[in-house]
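Long-time lurker, finally posting.

We've been working with Glutamate dehydrogenase (Xylaria grammica) and I want a structural starting point before designing mutants. I don't trust myself to interpret raw outputs, so I'm hoping someone here can both generate the structure tokens and explain anything notable. Sequence follows.
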Amino acid sequence: MSHLPSEPEFEQAYKELVSTLEDSTLFQKNPQYRTALKVVSVPERVIQFRVVWEDDAGNLQVNRGYRVQYNSALGPFKGGLRFHPSVNLSILKFLGFEQTFKNALTGLNMGGGKGGADFDPKGKSDNEIRKFCGAFMSRLCQHIGADTDVPAGDIGVGGREVGYMFGAYRRLRNQWEGILTGKGLDWGGSLIRPEATGYGLVYYVEEMMKYAGKGTFAGKRVAISGSGNVAQYAALKCIELGATVVSLSDSKGCLVAEGKAHFTPEQIDEIATVKLARKPLTAFSGVSSFKYIEGARPWVHVGHVDVALPSATQNEVSEEEAQTLVDNGCLFIAEGSNMGCTQAAIDVFEGNRKAKGAEAIWYAPGKASNCGGVAVSGLEMAQNSQRLTWTREEVDEKLKQIMRNAFENGLKTAIEYVHKADGELPSLVAGSNIAGFVKVVEAMADQGDWWASNTTNGVNGTH
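Top reply, 14 upvotes:
Generated this for you. Predicted structure of Glutamate dehydrogenase:
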């Protein structure tokens, strides 16, 4: 890829996948998959467009909009829309690449994609948000559809933005169809969708605890980063299951509970209101009850925790922070954010897993542990197709089963393809990467998207 512009986020995600495939017996047993890797790493389609809109002062504004339609072998392209000034093609390619394999792990018929714009919703009026969403959808609507590409929310895109974009699509196309997920409950949304990523993350860690023989969440100390939907609902579910949540954070700094202090559901509800108003954590009325550390993430400040749930953004756990978590006796770390740990941090966790056996920290990658959000988006798509609405209990039970299946799939695949010593916990990052990869490339082979070359030991197919 040397002739292409530097895309550091995408290159990191690609190398992380490849390293786990290379360190397993996958290519040894299936040499034709090297050809598949070349094909699956290139998006099917990349769309870039200008978004022209007018601010409240009557000034013309222009932003760049994107949609990376990465892979549709398993179903319509599926993945969120992100509105943030940092958005660029490298970030969206990384997210779409990860989304492809994450969606495969849900067991639902969804391909992978990601999109968004370098638009900053912070400081914008409701009228400006509405105008931008309409202008954005006027270009995006040419490329999406219920059986083609079904976007959702992401950073900077919540229920309000989804509503404005859905309405714009309906007016532009004269069609009511499930072209976005995360919709309002009265117009095609699903119960549990806002909670899904956070709840699913906790359900996944529950499966890790059961397998490792380390009990339940009851009585455990949990460090969480972020304060958006994922962090909020992960925290609430942890508390419901008897755990103590000792940290939350945002881009400005972190709140850490000292001594026997901890976050309560009422405090988390207030923080949710603060973040919905796009205010910093310091606007929370109970901030004086916690230690606030400006410009910091919580990992080196929380002391001993049993569980760490990075739930803010990519690369939010560094090598040094990973080592601190290990040294302080953390047992489980699972990503609520996409690529939440740097590769160096993952190396620390995986090295400890190999060295310490059953007493090691156990790391779960985001493509498995945070797939609950897109899973319930898939369930929303199914409900839209049937023009039905399932109960909260039905959706929650399906979510639990999807997370259980994602864990067991990664676990069994790791045991099959990755050597481990007696007493060593299986590598969930390797198992999840391989399981998602194999499912996608097998479907692509069946559909003629790639075929074994003459140089791969004469193999003429994947079966």
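Before you design anything, note these points.
The radius of gyration is 22 Å.
The first helix runs from residue 8 to 22.
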